[in-house]
Each structure stands twice: as structure tokens, then as C-alpha cells.
Amino acid sequence: MPRIIPIVESDGDMEAVPLLIRRTLHQNELWHREVGTPKKARNMAVFGQRAADFLRYARREKDCAAILVVLDLDDGCPAHVARQLADQVRGLHTDVPVAIVLAHREYES
Fold first, then answer.
1. What is the pTM assigned to this prediction?
2. Three-state DSSP class for 25?
3. Considering 38, 41, 46, 66, which has the largest number of Cβ atoms within 10 A of its Cβ?
4. How far is CA 87 from the centre of its chain?
């Protein structure tokens, strides 16, 4: 079955993000998708420096159909930073869709 593979920052996100994805899939009656094992990026700086490695690692997960990157944005403009990361990821020419979500500090909690 096709899987969405999360890339997250913290141990808490390793549990919370897959649960949130499963709930969203269930609420939208998308029974034909599963959530794979999350990959831990540690923080945005590390992901930015090693995006190709993280995406390649996620892509190796069995039945990977999409990758969801969920990172905390402590400072900066989410729209600007997301655009930069999206451009970087787009340049890697992945063969599966990649979505980037930045949790801004004002809206976390």
C-alpha cells in the first residue's frame, strides 16, 4: 500500500506527526494510504544542509508514495523559508511528491 513518509525534528514529532497524518487520512476517508516510519532531521539547519540525503533515505522506505517534511520555524517568515526549501527540494528532482510544512513558533502549542 502506498505510504507517506514524514521527516520531522524531535522525538515528540516522531509520534505526533504520523498520528496526525493517520487522523487526517481517516477523516478524509483515504483508506488507500499508510504512514511510514518517520525520519528524524533534528532541525531545519540540518535538513537544509542535507536535504538530498534525508529525501533519499525517506524514498528508500518500502512503498514510499510521498514525503511530508514537518519542521519548526523559530525565526523568520514561514512563506519565505518555505519557498527557499521548496526551491531546494525541487532542484533535487525527486520522483515522489514532497510537501513542506513549517510550524511557526506563534502557532505551535
1. 0.90
2. helix
3. 41
4. 15
Grid cell for residue 48:
537544509
Instruction: Report which of 35, 44, 24, 22 is spatially closest to residue 104, judged by C-alpha positions.
Output: 44
Burial letters 67-85, b for 16+ CB under 10 A, else e: bbbbbebeeeebeebbeeb
For the chain, list the domains and their CATH numbers: 3-104 (3.40.50.261)
Other beta carbons within 10 angstroms of residue 45's beta carbon come to 10
As a whole number of Å, the end-to-end CA separation of the chain is 33
pLDDT at residue 65, as a whole number? 98
Burial of 107 (0-12, 13-18, 19+ CB in 10 A): exposed
pLDDT tens per residue across span 19-42:
999 999 999 999 999 999 999 998
- For the purposes of burial, counting CB atoms within 10 Å of the CB of 50, is it exposed (0-12), middle (13-18) or buried (19 or more)? middle
- The reported pLDDT for the residue numbered 74 is 78
